[in-house]
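Lab notebook, bench 4. Still working through the backlog of constructs that have no structural model yet. Next entry is a single chain of 267 residues. Request: give me the structure tokens for it.
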Amino acid sequence: MGFAQLVIGPAGSGKSTYCSSLYQHCVAARRTVHIVNLDPAAEQFNYPVAMDIRELISLDDVTEELGLGPNGGLLYCMEHFEDNLDDWLADELENYLDDDYLIFDCPGQIELFSHVPALKNFVEHLKRKNFNVCAVYLLDSQFMTDVTKYISGCLASLSAMVQLELPHVNILSKMDLVPNKKDVNDYLNPEASVLLSELNQHMAPQFAKLNKALAELIDDFSMVNFIPLDLRKDSSIAYVLSYIDNCIQFGEDAEVKIRDFDPEEDV
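Model written out:
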């Protein structure tokens, strides 16, 4: 059985930085992980790339040959990737063992993990290949400055959760850049009544029923909470990784290693 993280989230949320930091952490811990680039528009990396979608198709080639814009070109690239799951991707996955740990660095267009089926079909392909997969949704902590932005982030996360149907971990990235961490801490595990009260203060009275529905929706999906990640702290990276490992049951079937010791010699 293989294991995989699907790293998703809006553009600029720190997905590639997260992958790079996670790789460095695992190297220091003498643990093997493989980072896979699924972004056809990527230009440079701070980690070794195990598989690269640009070997199949790149955004530059698509925009040059088909005259598409950045968003349309990216959707075309991911649809082409989807069409080659049984060919290119299957051949690439054969290079990895059953117990390998893959981390997929995905592009940041929200529609790819909210309603376009390319990533969902990719996930189904991984499951057929006997991979345990977890979606890791990154949201920039600086985005969480007020309740309206928090609601927007939660709804995008919920959309990805419903679309992908995977164990889902929400991470607040870039915590090291937040000047007042209390502003963010208030949104890690909020209560619906608090959200509703703050929403009503920000919105006009005619939106009261909509605010109530949104607060109740987020409260009903109690899985929507966020783990703060500070990449300056190794303990923070270790905590996030252990949380994800638990979601995909990594290491649960590992055999206990028994070490033989020579009998002590009489002195």
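Notes after review: Residues 147-164 form the longest helix (18 residues). Residues 2-188+225-247 form a domain with the Rossmann fold fold (CATH 3.40.50.300). Flag for follow-up if needed.
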